[in-house]
Every structure is written in C-alpha cells, then in structure tokens.
Design brief:
The longest helix is centred in the first third of the chain and has 40 residues. The protein has 2 helices and no strands. It is elongated, with a radius of gyration of 18 Å. Helix 1 runs antiparallel to helix 2. The mean pLDDT is about 80. By secondary structure, the chain is mainly α.
C-alpha cells in the first residue's frame, strides 16, 4: 500500500474508534439510569435483573479500559511505521 492509502485508512480507523468509544459511553450512562430505575422498581438492591445489568456494565468498562486501549496503542504503532 502507498503511504497515502495507509494514512487514510488509519484516519478512518481512528474515527471509527472515537465513534465506538462515544457509543460505549452513552450505553454506560443509559445502563446506569436503568439500574437506578430497576432498583427503585423492585425495591431491593440485589436482584437477578440488576445483577445482570451490573455485569453488562462491568464488562463494558473492561472493554473500554483493556481492548480499546490496546487498539489505540496498535494504531499509534502503525502511525509510527
């Protein structure tokens, strides 16, 4: 590939990463409010449904912290080459 094509590809990949991170933040915020509503609806803090939503939220945080950070590092390495 030519340098121009590689740079264009990396820019697009970076834009996709930002969009994915934005959507993940929105989902995280939505899940937070869903959890609050569910706890209020069920009138208890620990029930199966809220535990499941909390697990999804935790998994989302792990994805953001681990996998997305690794993808950013990989994109940075590719830019240096």
């Amino acid at each position: 590939m030519k340098k121009e094509k590689v740079r264009r590809y990396l820019r697009r990949a970076d834009d996709y990463m930002e969009e994915i991170e934005r959507k993940m933040r929105c989902i995280d915020g939505t899940l937070f409010f869903v959890l609050l509503g569910m706890e209020n609806f069920y009138r208890q803090e620990n029930c199966y449904e809220t535990g499941m939503m909390d697990t999804v939220r935790t998994y989302l945080e792990v994805l953001r912290a681990g996998d997305m950070a690794e993808l950013h590092k990989t994109l940075d390495k590719l830019r240096k080459v």
